[in-house]
Amino acid sequence: MASLITERFDYKKLKRCDLPEGRRYVTPDGEALPSVTTILSATGDKSHLEQWRKRVGREKAQQITQEAAGVGSRMHNYLEKYILEGEWQTPGSNPYAQQANKMAERIRDEALIHLNEIWGSEVPLYYPGIYAGTTDLVGVYKDKPAIMDFKQSNRPKKSEWVDDYRLQLVSYILCHNEVYDTDINEGHIFMCSRDFTYQHFSVEPCEFDYWVNEWWERVYKFYENLG
Asked: What is the pLDDT along the chain (227 residues), one digit of tens a residue?
């Protein structure tokens, strides 16, 4: 089977470095820029996360986090291979792989069917001199160019719980517009929880400027904290 990607842009590869102070990406110009997730982690409110760890116990919390990360990674891999190879992978007998495969199927059947074009999968992006990151998908969703991310969740989420995911989308949109001279102003989060509930969260054009301002506030805060 053939790849589902239509190449519209020559996406630059970035070298990723995981350092004690957070992830960095090295751009074609040799700049080592902080990742989007590093900026969000360093500037976000972690009080609710700390409360959850205390409630369930740190050892149990670590176990839940690692298990969720494993399922999420597998889910992403199924979707990425489908996009790159055009063929759906079977999960084998591992129960976590089977769960991840079903979660990926939900996203494929609910979201990917609405893609007119896929320009890139696991696309490295950077805003010169400021930050960098990797988005899961760039392309055309329901006739509109968009940045898209796949997310897994242990349980369905309320809209207000995914604001940092919206900031991720906006950060990648700004990179793409800056480096590749596009005019993207919307993004989409395709999420499936482990009970196979599919959810779709978006950054719409009418609210794009709001989220852009929110993102730059987090970037300014990050660099201010660096001193």
From this structure: 688 999 999 999 999 988 888 889 999 989 999 999 999 999 987 666 566 566 667 676 576 567 667 788 999 999 999 999 999 999 988 888 999 999 999 999 999 999 999 999 999 999 999 999 999 999 999 999 999 999 999 999 999 999 999 999 999 999 999 999 999 999 999 999 999 999 999 999 999 999 999 999 999 999 998 86
Closest CA to 106 of 78, 86, 81: 78
**Does some domain include residue 121?**
yes
Full domain range(s) for residue 113: 25-47+102-226
Overall domain count for the chain? 1
* Within-domain flag for 81: no
**Residues 87-96: contacts with CB under 8 Å, at least 24 apart:** 87/1, 96/67, 96/70, 96/71
Distance CA 83, CA 38 (A): 27
Tell me if 148 is assigned to some domain.
yes
